[in-house]
Design a protein that fits this description.
Belongs to the ADP-ribosylglycohydrolase family. It is built from five helices and three strands; from the N terminus they run H-H-H-H-E-E-H-E. By secondary structure, it is mainly α. The chain has two domains: 57 residues, no CATH class; 86 residues, no CATH class. A three-stranded antiparallel sheet has the order 1-3-2. Helix 3 crosses helix 4. The longest helix has 23 residues.
Length: 153
């Protein structure tokens, strides 16, 4: 006697691809919705929008629904991670930096992963120190110094 056929399950890779796509769309939507409050304190948000957001006020020069550099960095990071076949070792940083060189913005933020002050002597990019971020905060800026700014040399 033949065994009853089990319903076919979708391929795991397809499921993962759909989940990743959903996460990316969700992140981009959240970024676009929150772009008008980027870098604002809770008090500044309350002053601008009131205690309960009932509608959205357009407070920037960006078109409605625009994502910020946060989404651009997320996409660049994931594309770089794919190019490095999932490796999180320093070569990923070089690929990410090269990827970023093609982007329209002139800088990006990366989490600190070492005390190195640059990628390599051949790299067109360099890290600024965490101390610069702390000094920026002391001058009234918003950088805490927890990340490292990458700039073209």
């Amino acid at each position: 006697p033949q065994q009853p056929q089990q319903p076919q399950q979708p391929q795991t890779a397809s499921i993962v691809k759909d989940l990743v796509r959903g996460c990316l769309i969700g992140a981009a939507c959240g970024d676009a919705l929150g772009a008008n409050t980027e870098f604002m304190t809770k008090e500044e948000v309350t002053t601008t929008f009131g205690p309960l957001v009932k509608n959205f006020k357009h407070t920037t020069q960006r078109p409605y629904g625009s994502v910020t550099d946060d989404t651009q960095l997320l996409f660049s990071f994931l594309q770089s991670l794919l190019l490095c076949r999932g490796s999180l070792h320093p070569p990923l940083v070089s690929v990410l930096a090269a990827h970023h060189a093609l982007s329209p913005s002139s800088f990006l933020f990366l989490p600190s992963y070492s005390s190195s002050s640059s990628f390599s002597p051949l790299s067109p990019f360099s890290f600024s120190s965490d101390e610069e971020g702390k000094k920026d905060k002391e001058r009234g800026g918003r950088r805490e110094g927890g990340g490292r700014r990458v700039r073209k040399k």
